[in-house]
Amino acid sequence: xxxxxxxxxxxxxxxxxxxxxxxxxxxxxxxxxxxxxxxxxxxxxxxxxxxxxxxxxxxxxxxxxxxxxxxxxxxxxxxxxxxxxxxxxxxxxxxxxxxxxxxxxxxxxxxxxxxxxxxxxxxxxxxxxxxxxxxxxxxxxxxxxxxxxxxxxxxxxxxxxxxxxxxxxxxxxxxxxxxxxxxxxxxxxxxxxxxxxxxxxxxxxxxxxxxxxxxxxxxxxxxxxxxxxxxxxxxxxxxxxxxxxxxxxxxxxxxxxxxxxxxxxxxxxxxxxxxxxxxxxxxxxxxxxxxxxxxxxxxxxxxxxxxxxxxxxxxxxxxxxxxxxxxxxxxxxxxxxxxxxxxxxxxxxxxxxxxxxxxxxxxxxxxxxxxxxxxxxxxxxxxxxxxxxxxxxxxxxxxxxxxxxxxxxxxxxxxxxxxxxxxxxxxxxxxxxxxxxxxxxxxxxxxxxxxxxxxxxxxxxxxxxxxxxxxxxxxxxxxxxxxxxxxxxxxxxxxxxxxxxxxxxxxxxxxxxxxxxxxxxxxxxxxxxxxxxxxxxxxxxxxxxxxxxxxxx
Length: 553
Known about the structure:
Layout: H1 3-12, H2 17-34, E1 38-40, E2 51-55, H3 62-67, E3 74-79, H4 86-94, E4 97-100, H5 107-118, E5 122-125, H6 143-151, E6 155-161, E7 167-168, E8 171-172, E9 178-181, H7 195-215, E10 224-228, H8 232-243, E11 247-252, H9 255-264, E12 281-284, E13 295-298, H10 305-312, E14 321-324, H11 337-344, E15 349-354, H12 359-365, E16 368-373, H13 376-387, E17 392-396, H14 399-445, H15 450-454, H16 456-467, H17 472-481, H18 486-493, H19 498-512, H20 518-527, H21 533-538, H22 548-552
Parallel strand pairs: 1-9, 2-5, 2-6, 3-4, 3-5, 10-11, 10-13, 11-12, 13-14, 14-15, 16-17
Antiparallel strand pairs: 6-9, 7-8, 15-16
Helix pairs in contact: 1-5, 5-6, 6-7, 8-12, 10-11, 14-16, 14-17, 14-19, 14-20, 17-18, 19-20
């Protein structure tokens, strides 16, 4: 349908009274009965004169539910795609909707909104620009600020919660829905507001929407974070979070480590040459107030995770999100780190961060990482937050695949480095490839997605670890291949090589699952000192011996 005609009708004729009041008479009781609708703050809604409603957006039903706050028609913008069918376009336009070309700064839609306000009616604006279903609120665009300045109309901040859960396909399910309006905000009228001024006004409006959202129990943004573990990645992530505008505390193991970092404002043993911002507070981990944090990061090796969770897990609340940076498996059962934390903490969500993330390089040149969580909202929240620190973060629900890919990467690098000294590059590549494939097969039996091992968490991280000059697991493999006992490797490295712990746990877990992983099992025997590195390495490329039965077949 001609969109200019729809805009003209919204400007000049307004809603179709017959259609509007009949539909409202039906839907309002339906909302109360089926969705147990709760409306809070109706006293803040002007019942006459121009008014702008600025609201978050979760569902296609939001405009109709928010309109029930007022006892008069409320006009609202909707994406132009909804107006392509003539009958649907006429119906929506009759209820007060008019089309907008999202993302293109649609001047016609803005002009229509201005004319509606100038004649004394109300307009509903969704500053996020689109529906944002999981997690916390999205980021606002400056259009609402521009409209408020151009018209001088008061702005009522509105939050709605629960509508994201009512639809599954074409089915509308009963679910509690609540909407809350705050006190109107007033701004002076400006004839031609600059983009900067419009953005500044939007930044005044949006926190008021967030206030209503959090009052309704919506997920708050991450404002405070504590990082437990001042190793390379823990320190690096603390700096990244501070760059993203988060108040950060870095938790160290000892008072001596705190004093050393505070004196130099640098974590020289783990992240030399990288200045620690003054805004990052350094504390002993035991002194952190984790109950006050929005995000808690466990940045400790997998072997230290049980002690860290035992010491700090009890402080975590149901409002806290947890990010686990441990790579490998947790003894004695070979549990993945996020499963271990989730089973022992009452956090609202647990995620891991996978992919090629060499700590110092991530701060200097950026990184592409993978945030994995069963809670889509939490992983999206982490991705948006770290994007403010110039980190490219993708999201997935394949937590098992992401963590096992990290363990497989470390094991593959250890295997390649162990093999190279005795059997050359072909055998080294074969060892890495076979181990990677064996762990991938195990991960798929546990429900992993094929693309996880092929993407950032697997292949991407493997290449980065091989290329990194300071790769701990590669150096550990070189020592293992040269005959250094496993117990002596980490004292020489000065850091934890996660693969030394992970490989035996992987071998045991795969065997317990009934899988076949001869390469992983052989490397585990080398790590445990039951087989010499040379013997295992030289057998990597040996042809498999066929049994008499297989030859006969």
